[in-house]
Design goal:
heterodimer, A: about 100 residues, B: mainly alpha, Arc Repressor Mutant, subunit A, 14 helices, about 70% helix, globular
């Protein structure tokens, strides 16, 4: 890992202190003044995001697309595992057949 | 018995209703997969964690005792992360039931996180404030529909990024690009959370990280946004490409160039200093 990566890793934990006033209080004040007009904020883009974030299928497909290598490795490991089981089972059944 | 002891030990803390009446946990039980006993035990711990979770801890020096405590840095961080996620689940569950105090706690925990993400992308404190407010209003209005398939923090972060990208799109249509290329004066204060003190001991330099952040904030938008999404937000190239509507190749090139600019500027500064 080069030094820039190290600094960027630390930078993830950085938080900016808002310059004027307390951001928490501003948000809470805003929340206490919610009215019907604010429903407009829940536009199509937001509803689409909400729908996607509530869908297991979508999240799985996204994870699959973002980490294809992980799933390929998992597939290979699973194929190897079942191959081994099949191979052992076949040998056992052959042995049993020859004994009989 | 253990439950009673815990109650006595923490009677000054804000103990959730379920401590008085375990039956009131029914709804929460459905949301969390732990056993009732564990949930109650967790709740006590959580209340302390939520109250004590410091989202902005400017004190980066650590006493010897503290360092000893944090010897297993990574493990401690992971445990803390898990605890925080459980806290969030509890707060979200309560907020979904209409508990305003729980939602306020979520606001207090994540307001600076949302503000920071917005500020890095938009490089404007007023716009970052507007976006933070907008994001929390959206969350407040829709939290009942949040199923919790991803962590609350991830959900919030993606919502913030989406809102910021929308703002940038609107801005790029209306504002002269030259304005957005003006150097941003260092008029903001950076503080750090959840520091790993071992890392700090070996190579951490608060000032260097601040310098890196300052360079990032002053990068051109086409470099800044992909770099932030990739290196600070852990988005994949594909996700960035979809979000900013640019080909993956362009995204990769821009991130590579942005990193090179940062390295060059750091190198130049080092040479100038020494």
């Amino acid at each position: 890992m080069n030094s820039l990566d190290k600094y960027l890793k630390i930078a993830k934990k950085a938080v900016i202190k808002p310059g004027e006033g307390d951001i928490e209080e501003k948000i809470l004040k805003r929340l206490s003044n919610i009215n019907e007009k604010d429903e407009k904020l829940l536009d199509d883009d937001f509803m689409d995001y909400l729908k996607k974030s509530n869908s297991r299928t979508y999240l799985f497909s996204e994870d699959l697309k973002n980490n294809p290598k992980k799933y390929v490795m998992l597939g290979i490991a699973a194929a190897f595992f079942f191959g081994m089981i099949f191979f052992i089972a076949r040998n056992v059944s052959k042995k049993n057949a020859s004994k009989a | 018995m253990e439950k009673e002891d815990n109650c006595q030990n923490h009677e000054d803390k804000e103990i959730p209703d379920c401590m008085d009446n375990p039956d009131s946990m029914e709804g929460t039980k459905g949301l969390l997969d732990s056993e009732n006993h564990l949930i109650i035990k967790d709740l006590i711990m959580k209340n302390q964690v939520v109250e004590g979770r410091d989202m902005e801890n400017p004190d980066i020096t650590c006493s010897e005792d503290c360092e000893r405590e944090k010897e297993s840095g990574k493990n401690a961080a992971e445990i803390q992360k898990t605890k925080n996620e459980i806290d969030d689940k509890m707060l979200v569950a309560k907020s979904q039931k209409g508990d305003r105090a729980a939602f306020e706690k979520l606001v207090r925990l994540y307001s600076k996180y949302v503000y920071t993400n917005a500020f890095f992308i938009l490089r404007d404190s007023h716009e970052a404030e507007d976006v933070s407010q907008e994001v929390f209003v959206k969350v407040f209005l829709s939290i009942k529909n949040f199923r919790g398939l991803s962590s609350f923090k991830t959900w919030l972060r993606k919502l913030t990024i989406n809102t910021c990208i929308d703002k940038l799109r609107i801005k790029s249509r209306t504002i002269d690009k030259k304005i957005s290329l003006e150097t941003l004066e260092e008029g903001y204060e950076v503080v750090f959370t959840d520091l790993n003190h071992n890392i700090e001991k070996n190579f951490f330099s608060k000032e260097t990280v601040k310098e890196v952040l300052n360079i990032i904030v002053n990068l051109e938008e086409s470099y800044r946004v992909p770099l932030i999404l990739r290196d600070l937000q852990d988005y994949s190239y594909r996700e960035i490409s979809n979000l900013i509507k640019k080909p993956i190749g362009t995204v990769k090139t821009n991130i590579h160039r942005a990193r090179k600019i940062i390295k060059d500027k750091m190198k130049y500064k080092k040479e100038k200093m020494g």
